[in-house]
């Protein structure tokens, strides 16, 4: 009996990785692209976490022209400036930020359904 090693199951924390990302200063390095459902088939894409030295209005102007959609820059007290675009533009915005050289692909997180 003493030769057997008994392994007790440990609790699995599904949010351990998410909590680890939020604890350090590294969470500021990511650009988060999210989609929010409005009403019916309408949706809204938000881009947050861009560096402050970028001109949000110029990026928004290029995004609107590239994807033929409307958008705005919203000032949020907790998140800072957030770019909002009409429609589900997650993949488009991600490829645009990489091709324009604004962000690297590994620093972009895409959220949503």
TrEMBL record:
Segments for region (Disordered): 1-27
Ranges annotated as biased composition (Polar residues): 1-10
SUPFAM superfamilies attached to this UniProt entry: eIF1-like
Keyword terms, alphabetized: Protein biosynthesis, Translation regulation
Keyword check for Protein biosynthesis: yes
Any one biological process term the GO annotation gives: translation
Domain SUI1: 31-101
InterPro entries for this protein: SUI1 (IPR001950), SUI1_dom_sf (IPR036877), SUI1_euk (IPR005874)
Record's keyword annotation contains Cell cycle: no
Single GO molecular function: mRNA binding
Entry superkingdom: Eukaryota
Alphabetical list of PANTHER family matching this protein: EUKARYOTIC TRANSLATION INITIATION FACTOR SUI1 (PTHR10388)
Reported function: Probably involved in translation.
Family classification: Belongs to the SUI1 family.
Protein name, per record: Protein translation factor SUI1-like protein 2
Organism: Forsythia ovata
